[in-house]
Amino acid sequence: MILPKYEKELQIAQLAVQRASILTKRVFHEKAKGTVDKNDKSPVTIGDFGAQALIIAALQHNFPDDAIVAEEESAKLKEDANLRSTIWDLVKDTKLDDPAAEALLGGPIKDIDAMVELIDRGNSPGGSQGRIWAIDPIDGTKGFLRGGQYAVCLALMIDGDVKVGALGCPNLPIDDSARLTTGIGENQTDEGHGVLFSAVQGHGATSRALATVNLDAEAGTPISMRAIDDLTKANFCESVEAGHSSHGDQAAISQKLGITEPSVRMDSQAKYGSIARGAGDIYLRLPVSATYQEKIWDHAAGDLIVRESGGHVTDIHGKRLDFSIGRTLAGNKGVVAAPLAVHGKVLEAVQEVLSAKL
Ligand SMILES: Nc1ncnc2c1ncn2[C@@H]1O[C@H](COP(=O)(O)O)[C@@H](O)[C@H]1OP(=O)(O)O
Ligand SMILES: [Mg+2]
Ligand SMILES: [Mg+2]
Ligand SMILES: [Mg+2]
Predict the structure, then answer these.
(1) TM spans, by residue (predicted)?
(2) Could you tell me if residue 154 is left (phi over 0), alpha (psi between -120 and 50 degrees) or otherwise beta?
(3) 314 part of the active site
(4) Which pTM value belongs to this model?
(5) ipTM exceeding 0.90?
(6) Residue among 139, 267, 288 whose CB has most ligand 1 atoms within 8 A, to mutate
(7) What does the pLDDT look like over 251-268, one tens digit per residue?
(8) Are the C-beta atoms of 55 and 20 separated by less than 8 Å?
């Protein structure tokens, strides 16, 4: 069977992520990033709100009937006029340099009220039916705040299955063969950094420079995971935040597999992109809390990009990630992403170490 190429969806997803990244990069290089605390105590910045508005505007213009599951909501903006206008100042000036590309995204948002409304278009409950986009406008906000890695993430699911994924990683090297890296300093330039990963189900994954707009959605360089014949030489990536993934369990698993190199810690779905292009090999997300449910926008794009690069992605029980349940991965616990050929071995080690908790 020839799988559909979703050319239009891929093109819009790439351009929308590229436009939103222009805004996040501006905020990243500013000293005060306009942090607000959310109810769950996780930080959100003016960059998260602005990027979400811009991405939803592009989707609304091109696919007005599609549902959208996005991380942020506008409640804080509605009660704070200053915050609202700070975000609007950023959003209204952010556009792609290429006028044809900008026109494809529908051009600028009309006014500040339209911006607030757009942010709330991301409130779909998700589910197993129809076309649903998942957006994380800034994934790894903590990394963003400390000058580390972060990602602008967008994926299209149809009937609960991820068909298209785009991940903008402004602080990863453009060069696919560069070593794993934790981030760039806030005072460094973007020179040589900024990569856009994308994938379409059944058609592989690619990377390209995030800052270069190309209307040809298929113009990227194909990427693939590294073939590892000796697991002891594998590179692990894990979260920087020990509260998001257990560093202790990770170390025990590395030891069990005979891996001596320390894990590279980086924030966000940049981990998925990094292993997909062979800069690293394995990404584990090891549950720290019995109650935390992973959010679909934290995994949808990365899951597809890794699988289209020759990887296998499951939870710690060996189940594929299930994006069809709602806004969270309620049916999964943790993540094990590795090249297909060694995934079974890695999963075995994960389960041995976690056996007391499973
Ligand atoms: N208690 C938690 N356990 C796992 N992940 C979490 C938790 N709290 C927030 N997250 C989310 O984990 C992701 C970051 O993971 P990592 O540490 O691997 O970079 C982010 O999406 C972050 O949300 P956010 O998008 O608000 O930053
Ligand atoms: Mg957040
Ligand atoms: Mg996130
Ligand atoms: Mg986020």
Answers:
(1) none
(2) beta
(3) no
(4) 0.96
(5) yes
(6) 139
(7) 999 999 999 888 999 999
(8) yes
